[in-house]
Design a protein that fits this description.
Order of helices and strands: HHEHEEEEHEEHH
Distance between the termini: 28 Å
CATH architecture: Roll
CATH topology: 2,3-Dihydroxybiphenyl 1,2-Dioxygenase, domain 1
Radius of gyration: 16 Å
Shape: globular
Largest sheet: 7 strands, mixed
Helix content: 25-40%
Mean pLDDT: 88
Number of domains: 1
Number of strands: 7
Oligomer: single chain
Number of helices: 6
CATH class: Alpha Beta
């Protein structure tokens, strides 16, 4: 059975085009930079597990760890998703259900790797950025949010590289709840 990713998370190519257009309106073309990942927020814990398990059928690895006391998964696709306009992405961050009212459910953000360009970007867009203190990552992203609750995040390095720097590896499938049940399991 072939997993149709669009059926699980929605029109990811349309979402990317929308976010790219919004950033173009701000005179910044995210199409000029590599993408780190796209993100999807599940509505319920049951949806999170169902979507994770289905998406894993199209992946060669994942890292799932705890974030704010709940599982969050970084899924690496076997084949990159075509987002259109020459853009592709190999990773999806599957976010657990909202932990506070008003958080967006569904496609949540597009993440862009700016590398050495992140500091000039942050200076130019400082008035609209939600700062780097919103994450526990060693190099947290900046974020520009939109009225519908979606956003574009800007990283110095990719989320995958950040996760690897934290000591995780993308060499199989790891589930946070499995690790908690038997910490000696690998």
């Amino acid at each position: 059975m072939t997993v149709i990713i669009k059926d699980l998370i929605g029109d990811y190519a349309g979402f990317y085009a929308q976010q790219r257009s919004r950033m173009a309106d701000l005179e910044f073309d995210i199409g000029n930079y590599p993408l780190s990942h796209i993100a999807f927020r599940a509505a319920t814990d049951t949806d999170y597990l169902r979507i994770r398990d289905e998406l894993e059928k199209s992946c060669d690895a994942n890292v799932e760890n705890e974030w704010r006391g709940r599982a969050i998964s970084k899924l690496q696709f076997r084949e990159q998703l075509d987002l259109g306009g020459g853009a592709n992405v190999a990773m999806l961050e599957l976010i657990p259900p909202p932990h506070k009212p008003g958080q967006k459910i569904g496609l949540d953000h597009v993440a862009v790797v700016l590398g050495e360009h992140i500091d000039p970007f942050a200076q130019r867009y400082r008035e609209m950025l939600i700062g780097e203190n919103q994450s526990s990552l060693p190099s947290p992203p900046y974020r520009i949010s939109f009225k519908d609750g979606s956003s574009v995040k800007f990283y110095r390095i990719s989320l995958k590289d950040l996760v690897i720097a934290q000591g995780f590896s993308f060499d199989g499938f790891y589930h946070a709840r499995d690790e908690q049940a038997d910490p000696g399991q690998s």
